[in-house]
Amino acid sequence: MSLNRMFLFSKYARLLTPRVVQAGNEVTPYLQSERFFRTSTRNLAYAKDLFLGKVNKEEAFPYPEVSNEELEEINQFVSPVEKFFNEDVDSKRIDHEAKIPPETLNGLKELGLFGIQIPEEYGGLGLSNTMYARLGEIISLDGSIAVTLAAHQAIGLKGILIAGNEEQKAKYLPKLSTGEYVAAFCLTEHGSGSDAASIQTRATLTEDGKHYLINGSKIWISNGGLADIFTVFARTDVVDKDGQKKDKISAFIVEREFGGVFSGKPEDKLGIRGSNTCEVVFDNTKVPVENVIGEVGGGFKIAMNILNSGRFSMGSAGAGMIKKLIELTAEYAGTRKQFNKSLSEFGMVQEKFAVMAQNAFVMESMAYLTAGMMDRPGVPDCSLEAAMVKVFSSEGGWVCVSEALQVLGGLGYTKNFPYERYLRDCRILLIFEGTNEILRMYIALTGMQYAGKILTGKIKEMKKGNVGVVMQKLGKMLRDSFGMEVDLGLTGKDGVVHPSLADSAKKLETNVNLFGSTVESLLYRYGKTIVDEQLILKRVADVLINLYAMTAVLSRASRSISIGLRNHSHEVLLANTFCSEVFFKNNYMMTQLQKNSPENNDDSIKKIAKEVLAQRAYICSHPLERTF
Amino acid sequence: MHSKNQIQEMHAALRWEMNLAKVSVEKVGSLRNIHSSSTLLKNEPFATDYGEKSEHKGEGDKSLVTHDDLFERVAQESRTKATFSRVLDVFVRQDIRRRGHVEFIYAALKKMPEFGVERDLAVYNKVLDIFPKEVFVPRNFIQRMFNHYPRQQECGVQVLEQMENYGLTPNVETKVLLVQIFGEKSHPMRKFQRLMYWFPRFKDMNPFPIPHQLPQDPLDLARFSLSRIANDLDAKVTVHQMPFTDISETGEEVSQPYVVGIQSPDQCHLLAKHNTSRPLFVEGPFALWLRQTCVHYYVLRADPLPPEEKVKEPVDPERCFFYPLELDLDLELDRDLGDDDSFNVDEVEEGPVFAMCMAGQGDQATLAKWISGLQETNPILGRTATVFRLESGPRELQSTAEPEPDLQPHHHL
User: Fold this and answer.
1) pTM for the whole thing?
2) Closest by Cβ to B323, choosing from A249, A441, A452
3) Which residues, including other chains, have CB under 8 Å from residue A444's CB and lie 6 or more apart?
4) Which of A47, A109, A601, A615 has the most CB atoms less than 10 A away?
5) How far apart, in whole angstroms, are the C-alpha atoms of residue A233 and residue A196?
6) What is the residue extent of each domain of chain B?
7) How does pLDDT run across B6-55, given as a tens digit for each residue?
């Protein structure tokens, strides 16, 4: 270890030399970075600080709470919605007919669920993120409805909400919040998923300069067949500061009324069959210039902001679904008897329930911690946390639904029970709103960028002869090399974690400390080329997700035990189990990230894939094959 | 009667036999006789190989001729597997002692390619079957120690050797025959074991196997060859011109050579970005060997980009909706030396190849048809000068007479 350290240190020296020459142009790249690094405006930086091996305990502890009045308000909203979903929503029928009946949609509209987060002045419910998450738990009981509502308000009308001007808001939001208008988000095209460069839809200014003509087609548009208002992203010619003509993406509000909007046949999907997904074609659709969202040419940022803010509610949605599944399957496991024993007495069945409970607990903790962070005053950017919640809960949800189905065995596989529908529905969570692979890249690279900035900053300080920074660095190296116990202040005198969770808190601290040094060494080893090391970034993202999950459960369980919530000892049990489980996983992953680690199979994995992909087939000979 | 050569050959064989007889002690010969069939014993109470040969000199002579003769006679009818087998059968039936079988086998081996059975395992087994069984199997340690029946063993090895040369893997039947003829630890058996060790391992070693039977149709052959050179699963083969022969009104034969081209989407994309002020070159012919067949192909290429045109496109920060495609760090952080696994290879820069083709004729007029065919999918070809740099290479190898390709570069617009 210490040898490795010395090696790193020698790299400082290597880095220092070339910098002296080009010390003159330091300002420019820094300014540019603002554009690259969009989350640098945030004041909250819990997840990012983990990359530096720091725990910013003020941000995650104590667990966010709502006031009594708010709680009452939430419950007021929740009970009618719950009643509606239990009594008036026939999920089986929606799935079978691949359509949400109009009366169900009307019911949702009457409950105000089409405008959950639209401010009250525009006729919406104006709920906070926490309340939205709470409602999300219930809405998620039907995948089709959840996706329809999310496509409408989490992304469809979000553009108007976050970047629209007063007139646009006043014109559209009232009708959108009542559900009179349904919104859809039109970004994806043939050949363009995450790649903005391949967007082909074009908006051309008419000669009088008052309208844009939009031409192009968008695919996989949720609500594409129902929607009256579309947020459309299209290329426009923009003259930038240097007077050069450039092709940039702009966002438009397009009404179906404008004409030239055609929806294709709804896609026949695996799950969320009741939601409407189809192609939308714009053929010379005339859009007035007032309907440009934000600036002309500023569409890229808007799209990114919408996508980043749209995905946080998925955590609570997953948790809501699993909680429901636990109830359903526990009933079965308790009553079904085999060999004069009920299923619930078998260890392997018990394990499944433990997994489900733990996952629900962690998802819930993460989702509400993130929602609480987002609800703080100011405009905190929690996109990193939201992405982590999405990845964790979509994958956990998939595992849990599959386990629940397994408890019922063959019965779970039939259409007589809802498990197969849940299984199909929840598969989409891993795919949409940014696939989990892409989000892992986002999670890891955002952190790497942040850590890289600070670390290079430190190097500059050292170069200037700042003794303090050098000593700090040396001190940390010494501490690590003597293997001293890490203390990041979660426990002890100013501790924020309850003593019954102290062991788990120590595990988190140890992990965080190691994570900090791992990130540092990765940056030294790979530098800017880290963006191409996807397998490494995947592990970095996974460790970070685990660390955030540990934080969330520790924070939540500490609060519960401290204020004496019902069944808090169960929470402590879940939190401790989860932390110790994940602690070892993290250690393993970080060992894999070390140089020349025998646990790391990446090279072989890449080679296997390369050989398979070169032939585009499974290339092994059949086992029955002979050569003589 | 016989040519002088044949007689000399015979004498040489006899001398060789005599030497062997000296080395391997007379006893060996007698031992064989003791163990062989009773008829043999009666007829030849005490005969070395040399004696046997001299006694039946006339007959042996005759058989030497008949071996070749037998094949020649049959060959007049037809040279097929069936006739070849018939010759073998005739020999086997002729004489229960299989006299002169070694010579016959050598003759048979020599004739196999003529009859087109040189890759037929069943025929080889049949050839081996000519050896008398059990006679040459050593029966005690002394025989086993010395080279027992060296001539026959040598001949057995030769049969296997020829199989090896034609890349034929022996089968179980071969093994059974060899055991019956020479015994478990004989030289042919060792040869067999070595073959069986290596051949299966080598059989599928080539990642780009060529079938033994190449396509007969020149179009299919061109398709196969082009896909083989391109080695790109996305590459698309286009037949720009079908071969065509007709008699014109004046009675002259008008023929149109085939033109088959291949281009991948990547090449198409690359060509679209080509700087139109720089010429493109049609070069060739280049040879491609497919086993015994040689075919020729032509490429459309450009010169390597001059360094001033090689600009790395900066990463557009507004490219990816989800994550940064590039880290923005103040210091130039490169990959650490210890983690840089790339090899330092001196690379000779070559110009990009945009498409390849094969044609029935290598003249400029034919290849111009290829270029105009390509132009349908690559409109840039209409705006770029194309220079034909053709060599007169393939004329001596291709049977079809070709018009003299022009060595002077021509501009084709």
Assistant:
1) 0.82
2) A441
3) A537, A538, A540, A541, A544
4) A47
5) 10
6) 67-202, 218-305+349-399
7) 555 555 444 544 444 444 433 333 344 434 333 333 333 333 333 333 33
CB-CB under 8 Å, B320 with A531:
no
Provide the phi-psi class of A433: left if phi over 0, else alpha when psi is between -120 and 50, else beta: left
- How many residue pairs bridge chain A and chain B with CB atoms within 8 Å of each other? 118
- Best interface-test mutation with B: which of A16, A250, A528 has the largest number of B CBs within 10 A? A528
Strand duo A341-342 + A261-263: pairing: unpaired
Whether A101 has a pLDDT exceeding 70, the answer reads yes
- Considering chain A, what percentage of its residues have pLDDT values greater than 90? 71
β-bridge pairing A229-239 and A183-186: parallel
Phi (first) and psi of residue B237, to 5 degrees: -90, 130
* B369/chain A closest Cα distance in angstroms: 33
- Report the C-alpha gap between B88 and B102 in whole angstroms: 13
Whether A433 is catalytic is yes
Residues, chain B? 413
Res. B234: pLDDT tops 90: yes
List the alpha helices (DSSP H) in A375-465: 383-408, 410-413, 419-426, 436-463
pLDDT tens for residues A302-313?
Answer: 999 998 887 877
Q: Are A600 and A592 spatial neighbours (Cβ–Cβ below 8 Å)? A: yes
Distance of CA A541 to the CA centre of its chain: 12
Output the six-digit token pair for A187.
């970004």
Which residues on adjacent β-strands are paired with residue B2?
none
Q: Say how far apart CA B140 and CA B132 lie, in whole Å.
A: 19
User: Is the CB of residue B289 less than 8 Å away from at least one CB of chain A?
Assistant: no
Q: Which two tokens stand for residue B413?
A: 């617009």
Question: Is pLDDT above 60 for A37?
Answer: no
A114 neighbors A100 (Cβ within 8 angstroms): no
Nearest to B331 among A301, A442, A459 (CB): A459
Cα angle A431, A432, A436; round to 5? 50
| Residue A367: Cβ-neighbour burial (10 angstroms; 0-12, 13-18, 19+) | buried
